[in-house]
Write a structure and sequence with these properties.
Structural class: mainly alpha
Distance between the termini: 10 Å
Strand order of the largest sheet: 1-2-3
Shape: globular
Order of helices and strands: HHHHHHHHHHHHEEE
Length: about 375
């Protein structure tokens, strides 16, 4: 009994400290200086990449070499020519990433420029979400970087691989990787302090709104990718949904969480980009309505963004079977046992089954 009591006491102490704010106590000052210096270098490189100007001829040549294939390339076709030789013009011409979407539409128009800016912004927001999730799960800096990349650009990666559309977009446009790296390092350094001292929450309305903003751009870009590859219109929303959600699904699986887009216990998420992609698909059908591409993209973005924002504080859910296990999506996929010291007065040890969403049940041992 004394051995069991000691074991349960240790388990109870771990559970009590489970939800404390993350700290950087295990990181030495020297490591922090190195991490901060690395983040400054990445940030300066990112700023230089996005602000560097390039001649129109260089930009057009890059677009032809990389994005000129509008149709699906066969497996035997040669890959595009390398983007750069050492530190050639592409490193100074990374501004083309601001005028070409992540493997999608490459037309220069105000709507595409706006969507691409939101796309880069949304990449940072999704990377932040992944980094915070990984940090709260106890991962180190490298683990946080892995999860942030998966969260931000995992959906587009899966899309490009499944569709065999050539080199994955963020290998052609490294600005996406740079955004993920800078966001992860800054989150690692700053977020514990912001959360513990200022009370900031990663589920706050401004962050969720920024997430919805990026979600709208991802939905339009993913759907446009399906259009350019000549897929059947019924598959356009599928490609848009993959682009928006498969990064988050992979993140949740790797972090041992219930994928939130598959469960009805949180607000609607995947439904918003699905509706936006369907709207784009219907508007692009000439037999139904004759709408310009820019108008269709704008309406699709607004449908996705508005649906996601309106679902924040509403109990909208998709149809689902009723069951007794009302699991919360962000809890570990397992039952946790906590030791109740007040019940241990005799030879029997009392435990509580604290399955998330279920009332505690006493288990006598």
């Amino acid at each position: 009994n004394s051995y069991l009591s000691h074991s349960y006491s240790v388990l109870a102490s771990k559970n009590k400290n489970k939800k404390q704010s993350p700290q950087l106590s295990q990181t030495s000052p020297m490591n922090l200086r190195i991490i901060f210096l690395l983040s400054c270098l990445l940030l300066s490189d990112l700023i230089q990449s996005t602000s560097a100007s390039s001649t129109s001829s260089t930009t057009i040549a890059i677009r032809k070499n990389v994005f000129g294939h509008s149709k699906r390339r066969s497996s035997t076709a040669p890959l595009p020519a390398p983007l750069t030789k050492a530190r050639g013009p592409v490193s100074n011409a990374s501004k083309h990433a601001l005028t070409t979407l992540r493997g999608g539409n490459t037309k220069a128009d105000p709507v595409s420029d706006f969507l691409n800016a939101v796309d880069l912004f949304g990449t940072g927001v999704f990377a932040f979400s992944g980094a915070v999730t990984a940090g709260k799960k106890g991962m180190d800096l490298l683990g946080m970087l892995y999860i942030s990349i998966i969260s931000a650009i995992g959906g587009g990666t899966v899309r490009d691989i499944v569709l065999d559309s050539g080199t994955v977009f963020w290998f052609r446009q490294p600005i996406y990787f740079k955004i993920c790296a800078v966001t992860t390092i800054m989150t690692f350094l700053l977020w514990p302090t912001l959360e513990s001292r200022l009370g900031w929450k990663d589920s706050a309305v401004p962050i969720c709104t920024a997430d919805a903003f990026g979600l709208g751009a991802f939905a339009v870009i993913g759907t446009q990718k399906a259009v350019e590859l000549g897929l059947d219109p019924i598959m356009w929303p599928v490609v848009g949904l993959i682009t928006c959600t498969f990064g988050g699904i992979t993140r949740d699986v790797m972090c041992l969480q219930n994928p939130r887009v598959m469960y009805p216990y949180r607000t609607l998420y995947a439904t918003a980009p699905l509706l936006g992609s369907i709207a784009y698909t219907l508007l692009m059908q000439k037999s139904l309505v004759d709408v310009d591409t820019q108008v269709a993209a704008t309406i699709s973005f607004m449908v996705t963004f508005t649906t996601r924002v309106l679902s924040f504080n509403r109990s909208w859910r998709l149809p689902h079977w009723k069951n007794d296990k009302d699991l919360v999506w962000n809890e570990p996929i397992m039952n946790t046992l906590t030791y109740d010291e007040s019940e241990d007065e005799g030879s029997a040890a009392s435990l509580e089954n604290t399955t998330p969403g279920m009332p505690p049940q006493k288990i006598q041992m």
